[in-house]
Amino acid sequence: MSYVFFFFFLSVGRCQLQTGFYASSCPNAESIVKSEVSKATQQDSRLPASLIRLHFHDCFVQGCDASVLLDDTSSFTGEKTAGPNNNSLRGFEVIDTIKTSLESSCKGVVSCADILAIAARDSSLLQTGGPSWDVRLGRRDSTTASLSGANSQIPSPAFTVNQLISAFTAKGLSAEDMFTLSGKCKLIRVASGSYGNGIYGYAGAHTIGQAKCSSFSGRLFNNSGSGQPDPSIRQGFLKSLQSACPQGGDATALQPLDVATATTFDNQYYSNLLLGRGLLNSDQVLSTTVGTARNFVKAYSSDQSKFFSNFAGSMINMGNISPLTTPNGIIRSNCRVPS
Q: Which cofactor does the UniProt annotation name (predicted)?
């Protein structure tokens, strides 16, 4: 019965989201977000990955409700200090700036949850050359956050393919969504933390971004406690990584998730996996797992248009995860504060 209710609620929320939601109430909403994202990415080339990741980490905990943006209060601890987020999530100040601009233009109209969704789309397109899509809007903001949810529901970099699929299907997404969104996180900067010391996210998004040595160094010297490197890593790539991230070296040093086209949103990430050049275990297993996973990797590596089209569709699907819509939720005036 609980699963029936979950999918009924999910479907109702999806139906209430629509393109052009602010056409009358705040006609410049999307252009304001795009302008601010553009200005911010000119200052910091890593921001596109960070903003996409913010949207992902938001949607996977309590649904797409901007709970990830909330600071701690006297009544709850927010999600920012959760293992997958602490010293890792970025872009909060950019969201603050966007919110301030929107409040000046259309006070109390545009939700923080919708800002995250629009900013993620613009981050894919601006600076990085990725796909665009029409963002369905109408989300409202939560007044609570879930530290425990952030610690338990965001996929780990150590997950197997089956574990990744389970994490996505638990949110109403498909295996295809998982394979597609996996290539997206190349944009992400990964920090070490108590929750696996690594990157948390989805594969296709890994077409841009960086990861700290601490998030993958185990693969280089002592894979799964074997005392040996991960045999799936191509030898030349392994040697370069061992040199960049030596044992006892700087665990916070950054390496690109896509060694070929680190700042471009493209399908090279999938080609890298076929060549044994996946930085994270959760990426490389997509290629080494025989069957559906490897078939997706091959298909996307040879057809960027297919990857872009499916990526846009999967981002829309992810943005539909359990949104709060009228009469539920609120429109925060400050994205960090639940009021």
A: heme b; Ca(2+)
Cis ω for the linkage preceding 246 (within 30 of 0): no
Model pTM? Answer: 0.83
CA atoms within 13 A on the CB side of 250: 7
pLDDT digits (tens, 9 = 90+) for 65-118: 999 999 999 999 999 999 999 988 999 999 999 999 999 999 999 999 999 999
Check if the beta carbon of residue 311 is closer than 8 Å to that of residue 267.
Answer: no
161-188+199-316 CATH pick, 1.10.3720.10, 2.40.128.110, 1.10.420.10, 3.30.830.10: 1.10.420.10
In this structure, what token pair is assigned to residue 284?
């490389």
Domain regions of the chain by residue span: 28-151, 161-188+199-316
Q: Which amino acid, one-letter code, is at 233?
A: I
Q: Which two tokens stand for residue 336?
A: 């960090």
Residue 140 and residue 324 in contact, taking contact as beta carbons nearer than 8 Å? yes
What are 135-185's pLDDT values in tens digits? 999 999 999 999 999 999 998 877 888 888 999 999 999 999 988 886 554
Q: Which residues does the annotation place in the binding site for substrate? A: 155
Same fold, 28-151 and 161-188+199-316: no
* Amino acid occupying residue 296: F
296 Cβ contact list (under 8 Å, min separation 6): 176, 179, 180, 286
**In terms of CATH architecture, what is 28-151?**
Orthogonal Bundle (1.10)
Pairing of strands 209-212, 182-184: unpaired
Q: Where in the sequence numbering do the catalytic residues fall?
A: 57
Give the residue ranges of the annotated binding site: 58, 61, 63, 65, 67, 79, 155, 206-207, 258, 261, 266
Structure tokens that stand for 59 in this block: 């949607």
Q: What is the strand order of the sheet 188-190 is part of?
A: 188-190, 209-212, 254-256
